[in-house]
């Protein structure tokens, strides 16, 4: 066998679906974790500076955000390892399915491991759908504030009393109703929208939401690839049992 034929045969064993899913998963998780972490820090700064100047009013929110940042560290570490394991499992199952080596035989243990990854990937896919929906919430809140500021600046708005336009974050349940001032109106609201913390946090939340969506797509690709490979391996095992008799 020549070098060219050998390379073609080796390339035939590459799990391209798992490889694409791994790259997409790493990119999505990195965007979600990195941008989400920085955006949460900026959100705390905005709340402490403009909406809740008494520390005790937003103490619970601060603790929750810090906990979420620690969870982000765990998510990044877990998916880095899980992506590598799934890619390795993709190489194993692809080689077994395509029978690149004549002595390559599937075992019950290998099929059980493949089935476990199928089940776990389905569970993670459903969980990340929830994460994707949750990550859209801060995007919606920041968009409401940004659109209110844009409406005040618009020349066609014809606003007679700009101080009557307010954004009250207490109505979203972020901070308690007794928090002071709890809302921003008029020029104060415009100043908040012009701060670097607001601009950066808003766009980072958008990128984090996009990263969560990319991770969902990656897990869907993983689901299809692992389910297909597991089904073929199970079918091949039945063929092996039939040929023994």
TrEMBL record:
It comes from the Eukaryota. It is a multi-pass membrane protein. Keywords: Membrane, Transmembrane, Transmembrane helix. The chain crosses the membrane at residues 19-47, 67-92, 113-143, 204-228. One of its GO terms (cellular component) is myelin sheath. It is found in: Membrane. GO terms for biological process: axon development; central nervous system myelination. One of its GO terms (molecular function) is structural constituent of myelin sheath. Pfam families: Myelin_PLP. Belongs to the myelin proteolipid protein family. This is Glycoprotein M6Bb.
């Amino acid at each position: 066998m020549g070098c060219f034929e050998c390379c073609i045969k080796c390339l035939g064993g590459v799990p391209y679906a798992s490889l694409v899913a791994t790259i997409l998963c790493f990119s999505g998780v990195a965007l979600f974790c990195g941008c989400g972490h920085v955006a949460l820090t900026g959100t705390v700064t905005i709340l402490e500076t403009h909406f809740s100047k008494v520390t005790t009013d937003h103490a619970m929110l601060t603790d929750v955000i810090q906990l979420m940042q620690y969870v982000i560290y765990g998510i990044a570490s877990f998916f880095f390892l899980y992506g590598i394991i799934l890619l390795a499992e993709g190489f194993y199952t692809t080689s077994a399915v395509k029978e690149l080596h004549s002595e390559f035989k599937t075992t019950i243990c290998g099929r059980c491991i493949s089935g476990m990854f199928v089940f776990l990937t389905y569970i993670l896919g459903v969980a990340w759908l929830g994460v994707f929906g949750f990550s859209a919430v801060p995007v919606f809140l920041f968009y409401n504030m940004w659109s209110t500021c844009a409406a005040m600046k618009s020349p066609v708005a014809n606003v007679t009393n700009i101080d009557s336009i307010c954004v009250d974050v207490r109505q979203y349940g972020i901070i308690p109703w007794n928090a002071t001032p709890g809302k921003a109106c008029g020029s104060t609201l415009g100043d908040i929208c012009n701060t670097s913390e607001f601009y950066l946090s808003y766009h980072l939340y958008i990128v984090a939401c996009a990263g969560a969506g990319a991770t969902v797509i990656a897990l869907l690709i993983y689901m299809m690839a692992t389910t297909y490979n597991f089904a073929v391996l199970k079918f091949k095992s039945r063929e092996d049992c039939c040929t023994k008799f």
